[in-house]
Specification:
With about 280 residues, this protein is of the alpha/beta class. The protein is built from 9 helices and 14 strands. The chain starts with 11 loop residues before the first strand and ends with a strand.
């Protein structure tokens, strides 16, 4: 039996899922149970997913070496094809199937569907952890706007949108967009009460090599200081930076956590910082 339909005006949670979670059967099953629990507590859900590990693996099978700078993928023509096939194809299908098994009416779409994620090509820029020079990331997009009407239509019909992190422009050009960027933009557009970033890590760690150093809460200034000191590094840097942008854009709370238990998401929503790290304005 599918979970019931939350009413309009119910709390909204956007859940971002990394490709490493989809590749882990236990984590994926826990995620499905956690999303089902949120739906049963009358929370409107939208899921945004990446698929970096799957895209990188496909690139290698096709004979191309992935290029990543400071946790961000450089997307040339070959990389874009791999992202389209791996993320909007394989990962989206597997995630929707897992959510169906959990009793949710999941509908797989991408940011290109009905102009859900309107985007433009990102100009070369200097990024944290990427050195002093501006970097051209290729077919990587910046979000211009989110088509909230499509989300509202799916929610009204009782579906859970599952969004692959691609976007497009009016001319039909497709862009690879970091899933954290899409999730934050989408969460801001719907004024989400919670943005849950589900990763393989238990949260943000004061010592990235020690999983027992999870921080329960971070403010904007504390997060910036942790990036500057090197406590937050690698792929966690863009995740935290986008979280700060999301908070500035209207998201009420951002949570970084793992799907280590079936009730992890629901516990974190009820008691922010109890399972992962909550970042607050």
């Amino acid at each position: 039996m599918s979970a019931g339909l939350p009413a309009r005006g119910a709390p909204t949670a956007v859940v971002k899922v990394g490709g490493e979670v989809v590749a882990d059967p236990t984590a994926l099953a826990n995620l499905g149970a956690g999303l089902r629990a949120l739906a049963e507590s009358r929370v409107r859900l939208a899921v945004v997913h990446g698929g970096g590990p799957q895209a990188s693996a496909l690139q290698k099978r096709l004979g191309f070496e992935p290029q990543v700078v400071a946790g961000r993928r450089i997307t040339d023509d070959a990389a874009l094809e791999a992202v389209e096939m791996a993320v909007a194809g394989h990962v989206n299908v597997r995630l929707c199937a897992a959510l169906r098994a959990a009793g949710l009416r999941a509908v797989g779409i991408s940011g290109s569907s009905a102009g859900l994620v309107d985007a433009v090509r990102r100009p070369p820029r200097v990024v944290s952890g990427g050195g002093p020079d501006a970097i051209d990331f290729g077919h990587v997009g910046d979000v211009v706007s989110i088509g909230v009407d499509l989300l509202e239509a799916l929610w009204s019909a009782g579906f859970v949108p599952v969004v692959a992190c691609l976007g497009s422009d009016a001319a039909g050009r497709v862009y690879n967009i970091n899933a954290d960027v899409v999730a934050n933009a989408l969460a801001g557009a719907v004024s989400a009460d919670h943005l849950l970033l589900v990763t393989s890590a238990p949260g943000i760690l004061s010592d990235p090599d020690d999983p027992n150093t999870r921080l329960s809460r971070l403010t904007h200034h504390e997060a910036r200081a942790a990036i500057a000191s090197g406590s937050i590094r690698g792929g966690m840097i863009p995740k935290v930076e986008e979280s700060l942008a999301g908070l500035a854009g209207g998201v009420r709370a951002v949570h970084v956590l793992s799907a280590a238990a079936p009730d992890a998401l629901a516990r974190e929503v009820r008691d922010p910082g109890s399972v992962g790290t909550v970042i607050l304005p």
